[in-house]
Structures are given as structure tokens and as C-alpha cells.
Amino acid sequence: MQPYRVETTVSPDRLLIIRGLPFRAGEKVEVIVLSLPRKRDKRYLLRGKAIRYTAPFDSIAEKDWNVRRQRPIMIQQ
């Protein structure tokens, strides 16, 4: 059995139409429908990522605060 792959889009009324199949009329086939992974929006790269705060309630010295504002905080994944 040879697989036949087609990528298409579901219509607004949730209907799939596949034309030009390489099978004879009346031939039995198996149909498996898979959702393709969505493309990530580059504007929101951290969406859904876990964020870990190290001592979030500790006070921070003025000189350390200025360093933090100039250097980005690294987020562990």
C-alpha cells in the first residue's frame, strides 16, 4: 500500500475536500487526519515559557539595581 500525502486547509464549515486522488472508484482507503503544528509568532518568543525568580522578595541595593537595568535578565528554560 502506497501512502498519498496531501496538505489542505479545513473550510469555515469544517469540511475537507480532496480532489485528484490516485485511487480507483470503489477502492477502500484509510484516512488519517493530523493537525500540523502552528508556526510560532516571533513577537512573543517567551509566551508559554516557565519563568523562575531567584529570591523575588529580597531587597536589591541601588548599585545592583542599575546593573540589572542595563543587563538583560537570563530566563532558564
Walk me through the structure.
By secondary structure, this protein is low in regular secondary structure. The chain contains 1 helix and no strands. The chain has one helix at about 60-70. The protein is rod-shaped, with a radius of gyration of 26 Å.
Task: Briefly say what this structure is.
The protein has 77 residues and is largely without helices or strands. It has one helix spanning 62-70.
Summarize the topology:
Elements: H1 62-70
Q: Strand tally, please?
A: 0
Percent range of helical residues: 10-25%
Q: Can you count the helices?
A: 1
Tell me the overall shape. rod-shaped
Q: Stretches where pLDDT falls below 50 for ≥5 residues?
A: none
**Terminal CA distance:** 43 Å
Give average pLDDT, whole number: 80
N-to-C order of helices and strands: H
Measured by DSSP, the beta-strand proportion falls in: under 5%
Structural class, judged by helices and strands?
little secondary structure
Alpha carbon gyration radius? 26 Å
The major beta sheet can be summarized as: none
Summary keywords:
12% helix; 77 residues
